Amino acid sequence: TPVPTVFTPLTIRGLTLQNRFAVSPMCMYSASNGHLTDFHLVHLGQYALHGTPLTIIEATAVTPNGRISPEDSGLWQDSQIAPIKRVTDFIHSQGQKVGIQLAHAGRKASTLAPWHYRTLGKEVATEELGGWPDNLWAPSPIPWAEGFPTPKEMTLEQIRGLVRSWKDAARRAVEAGVDLIEIHGAHGYLLTEFLSPITNQRTDQYGGLPFENRVRLLVEIITAIRSVIPESMPLFLRISATEWMSHLGQPSLDLGESKKIASLVADLGVDLLDVSSGGNNPAQKIEVHPYYQVDLASEIREHLRKEGKKMLIGAVGMIANAEMAKDVVESDGTVEVDGEHGTKAKADLVLVARQYLREPEFVPKVASELGVKVRLPLQYSRAPFPKKKKV
Ligand code: FNR
């Protein structure tokens, strides 16, 4: 029987992943002044010990005010390189790959880690709690929700500085030994705020209704990052393919716009579009079902293929078992185009978040269910995974 596509290698520029799984970036609220800690080394390292070909380090802020919480990871200064290098060195020692997500939280910065806000009963990290509520950046001075601080409308000079910060952070990430960089353009953080006509009400070249204005910052950041990372290094971009606000009956960031974004960034050197959704507005209306985000990924992939563009697509959201993981990247199996197994796969890479918190051995478990073997450390060889019934 042929190996399911999800267990076939995937080559992106100079990088080859052993199979099609990735740990989706997840904030752990455990950094110390933006530096990764022992927690991160053990937490991220465990995935490499369990056959995960690619682990993406959590949203890592390019400026201090771009952190979601005071305990977020950052890459705004050189001292933050070494603790990341410790993680990349370990993951490489296990023959696996590691990426990093670079981010700026925009108007959603300066909040408390979930467990703090549950006990303290508030979300905003005030100054006494290590936050910076008076120094939030956004395209327009519109707060996330009632009771949240009003962000500052970024000046043109701040925007120019921000592009430099992304570029510097990317250069540091390369120094830290990462195999790829993902730009966080999703979930209502700064780049989504610029992309959405609801949160971007600027009247200059970076905003307003015209599409080319709202994407300008993203385009500048992609171009800046590509200019400092090796040609062989993949660049990923995560977007919210829709902000789920079409019920307002006014222009919003929706799937149609995201297809345009996809076409645009495919030509700028983005290698994989990681398709997520939502997070830009508390009034979002989502109809959740297991494929609610995979379907968005699939539609964008089909759009790109019709345009003859080869940018890869990552799917994320509620992928938590062998059957779905297999299905997401499986094609109809009839055609073999440029090393791709057919054209009708929904996505090319399976990103998994919460299931990895429950089950670090997700990949070998899925592998045993599908009758496939994955590489595990020799140290673990006396405890093979039992074979399960095939799905
Ligand atoms: C997340 N998510 C997330 N997304 C992102 O782009 N950057 C991040 O740093 C984080 N942080 C984060 C922390 C935690 C604890 C969770 C649970 C989630 C979202 C995550 O990557 C993923 O997109 C969603 O969780 C949906 O996938 P699953 O969990 O259904 O597989």
For this entry, give a set of tags.
15% strand; alpha/beta; binds ligand FNR; 15 strands; two-stranded antiparallel ribbon; 8-stranded parallel β-barrel; 391 residues
Give an overview of the whole structure.
- This protein has 391 residues and is an alpha/beta fold.
- Helix content is 31%, strand content 15%.
- The protein has helices spanning 38-49, 81-93, 114-120, 156-175, 190-195, 211-214, 216-228, 255-266, 294-306, 322-329, 354-358, 362-369; strands at 10-12, 15-17, 21-23, 54-61, 73-74, 97-103, 137-138, 152-153, 180-185, 235-240, 272-276, 312-316, 336-337, 340-341, 349-352.
- The strands form four sheets. An eight-stranded parallel β-barrel has the order 3-4-6-9-10-11-12-15, surrounded by seven helices. A two-stranded antiparallel ribbon has the order 1-2.
- It starts with 9 loop residues before the first strand and ends in a 22-residue tail after the last helix.
- The model has no long low-confidence stretch (mean pLDDT 95).
- Ligand FNR is lined by residues 24-27, 58-59, 101, 184, 186-187, 238, 276, 316-319, 352-355.
Number of helical elements:
12
Gyration radius over CA? 20 Å
What summary fits the major beta sheet? Answer: 8 strands, parallel, barrel
Strand content: 15-25%
Q: Bound small molecules, which ones?
A: ligand FNR
Strand order of the largest sheet: 3-4-6-9-10-11-12-15
Total DSSP E strands: 15
Summed over residues and divided by their number, the pLDDT gives a mean of 95
The first-to-last residue Cα distance is 13 Å
Q: Share of helix among residues?
A: 25-40%
Succession of helices and strands: EEEHEEHEHEEHEHHHEHEHEHEEEHH
The assigned structural class equals alpha/beta
Poorly predicted ranges: none
The coarse overall form would be globular
